[in-house]
Amino acid sequence: MSQKPPADRDELAISHARPYTAPGVRVFYDRGRCLHFAECVRGLPQVFDVQKRPWIQPKNASAEQVAEVVRRCPSGALHYRLEEGPREEPEQPTRVEFVANGPINLRGDLSIDVPGGRMREVRASLCRCGRTENEPFCDKACTSTGWSSEPPTATTVLDERNE
Description:
By secondary structure, the protein is α+β, with helices and mostly antiparallel strands. It contains five helices and six strands, in the order H-E-E-H-H-E-E-E-E-H-H. A hairpin with a 2-residue loop joins strand 5 and strand 6.
């Protein structure tokens, strides 16, 4: 991000995301934050279909159904705005999940330092390997670099001492 994000909570998460519009709902997709957990594809395959262009077609379900599935996106790559209805509210209390050999998934009232300033968010997958090129968000650099969240086994430690 090259500038400080706007102060409104909705705008912070979606300011650099591509919009997909249908009556009643607008879906925003930030490709740089997508970790392919596939909650969207499994939840509403008629809306989120990677074989079609555009791959997000919110007109194929009700606005409420689209919003419900978007809220499942752990990385925060997807957001929505309803024409009529409430904004997405943060989970209370904040929930933290460590994904094996992957990111820290957070859900709650989040305040995240990003290169352009501070970002308010309700869902995010943050890097824990320290190798991401999309700080502070995970970009799966852990997978390509062989980083593991698992502690070395006793056998591995013994093998290293015996070499």
